[in-house]
Design goal:
- With 223 residues, the protein is of the alpha+beta class.
- It has 2 domains: 16-45; 47-213.
- Helices cover 25% and strands 48% of the residues.
- The chain has 2 helices and 11 strands, in the order αβββββαββββββ.
- Strands 1, 2, 3, 4, 5, 6, 7, 8, 9, 10 and 11 form an 11-stranded mixed sheet that branches.
- Strand 6 (154-170) and strand 7 (173-178) form a beta hairpin.
- It is found in: Membrane.
- Keywords: Membrane, Transmembrane, Transmembrane helix.
- The chain crosses the membrane at residues 20-43.
- One of its GO terms (biological process) is defense response to other organism.
Length: 223
């Protein structure tokens, strides 16, 4: 025996509503997906390219009487924005050190880079730093390596980009805050420009850095 009435009509109505809701959700998802696809095709976003190069040392001396390192390092950091429709706001720290981080010198940078441009920043890190070693063996290893590099007139220098934050500008929209990871290989042959070494060319004093993006916030309007 079957029955019909308000209850069955109500169930049918609920099923129709659920069906329409599902169709609307699917339609919206397709529209959003197509919009993102067209956006990607039109904007064609590319991450920035970073190169560290033209490095040289005007001075790099270690005084054994007081374990003080005197340094005068010159290099540049070139950042290229290959995008036709995107600009970048940068907030970063440029750090230089020897290969064992016995000395560290850094500078904070904040600037905007427009579309299809290359920004080259010149750095001169000069000063002195008293070094502290864990024991006499560590000190001996440092002095031995330092003297070997000094004899050949070439030193290994690390230049890093740290605390790197990027905001992407697209028209009037600032697209989130990104914290890319930037990995730069050491500069293996930075020339010490002494009297007997003037004009000597380094075989590898520039490196391309690897940039890996990771978003940390969402889209927001420009102020």
């Amino acid at each position: 025996m079957t029955t019909s009435g308000p209850a069955s009509a109500g169930c049918l109505c609920c099923c129709l509503i659920i069906s329409w809701i599902i169709k609307i959700i699917i339609t919206i998802s397709i529209v959003i997906g197509l919009a993102l696809l067209f956006f990607w095709i039109i904007v064609n976003p590319h991450k920035m390219k970073i190169q560290i190069g033209e490095a040289s040392l005007a001075q790099f001396n270690f005084t054994t009487t007081n374990d003080t390192l005197h340094y005068d390092l010159n290099f540049d950091v070139a950042i290229q924005n290959p995008n036709k429709m995107m600009g970048f706001f940068y907030d970063m720290v440029v750090v230089a050190s020897d290969q064992e981080n016995n000395y560290v010198h850094s500078k904070w940078e904040v600037f905007y880079q427009g579309r299809k441009t290359t920004t080259t920043m010149l750095y001169n890190f000069a000063g002195k730093r008293e070094l502290y070693f864990g024991d006499s063996n560590e000190r001996s290893r440092f002095i031995k390596r330092f003297e070997e590099e000094k004899r050949r007139g070439m030193f290994v220098i690390n230049v890093k980009i740290e605390d790197f934050r990027v905001r992407v500008r697209l028209g009037k929209i600032r697209i989130g805050v990104f914290q890319p990871k930037v990995r730069c290989d050491p500069l293996n042959n930075v020339a010490l420009l002494s009297d007997h070494n003037i004009g000597k060319k380094a075989t590898q004093n520039s490196v391309e850095c690897q940039v890996q993006f990771k978003a940390t916030s969402i889209m927001e309007p420009l102020d």
